[in-house]
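Entry 14. Ran structure prediction on the chain below.
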Amino acid sequence: MIWLRKYLEHKGIKIKTHVKEGGKVEGQFEGRQEAILKILKKKFKELPRAVEDKIKDIHSVEKLEEILLATLDVTSIEEMEKIINQ
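Output, structure tokens:
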């Protein structure tokens, strides 16, 4: 995970996290969603609103991590949609 954070920061994308009382990490979903959207918009220039909405509706850290890593390899929005819909 450290290498991914360094890669994203190198690209100018920061994952936002805030520590709440009790040690809970807030912003896990939003930070990952934001990173995914920024990478996809940079990579494909335009992103269909439906894809953006689907990403914003995902509230599983594991699924968002899977999608975040996939952004490095996908070559089309259609390929990304298949991963999102799995």
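Residues 21-26 have pLDDT under 50 and may be disordered. Will compare against last week's run tomorrow.
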